[in-house]
Amino acid sequence: MKKHPLEGKIAKVMFDSGLQFRLDFLEDYQMRWTSIRKEDAGATDVETIHIEEYPGGIFSIDWVEESGLCVSYTLDTANSYVKSFMTFTDEGYRGGRRPFVHEGPFHFILENGEPDTALA
After folding, report:
1. Measured between alpha carbons, how far is 106 from 67 in angstroms, rounded to an integer?
2. Which tens digit of pLDDT belongs to each residue from 54-109?
3. Which residues form the MoaF-like domain (predicted)?
4. Mapping DSSP to helix (H, G, I), strand (E, B) and coil, where does residue 68 land?
5. Is the distance from CB of 33 to CB of 45 less than 8 angstroms?
6. CB distance 23 to 33 below 8 Å
7. Whole-angstrom Cα distance, residue 26 to residue 46?
8. Helix H or strand E segment including 35
């Protein structure tokens, strides 16, 4: 039985910043992100996520990485769009944290990379 509505889904995210990821939503509130940019050589990690679902196919997905990077995604499944707000350590900024915002399209995909047309 699924514990959250995105469990078992895979998403491809293409941010306007140039960052690109494959997101695998796993069991037990885990998510594997994998960079799909050539220059990142497949960087990947598994994070424990907090996920909330809102009316209209909106999801809030948040996590804190081992490095201290804090990430928050707002996923709009109806419009296949994601916005991200991240903060990371930088003593030159207020509170010692630098913000970084980016957004772009996302699509659910199957394991083979083809579009996943099933509803979340």
Report:
1. 25
2. 999 999 999 999 999 999 999 999 999 999 999 999 999 999 999 999 999 999 99
3. 8-91
4. coil
5. yes
6. yes
7. 9
8. strand 30-35
Tokens representing 105?
Answer: 């399209």
- The pTM of the full predicted model, rounded to 2 decimals, is 0.92
**Architecture of the domain spanning 10-109:** Beta Barrel (2.40)
Phi, psi of 38 (to 5 degrees): -55, -40
| φ/ψ of residue 100, rounded to 5 | -145, 125
Angstrom distance (rounded) from CA 62 to CA 36: 20
CB of 92 within 8 A of CB of 104?
A: no
Residue among 34, 30, 21, 75 at smallest CA distance from 52: 75
Task: Retrieve residue 28's tokens.
Answer: 């037990």
Specify the pairing of strand 97-109 against strand 58-64. Answer: unpaired
Neighbour-count burial of 30, counting CB atoms closer than 10 A to its CB (0-12 exposed, 13-18 middle, 19+ buried) = middle
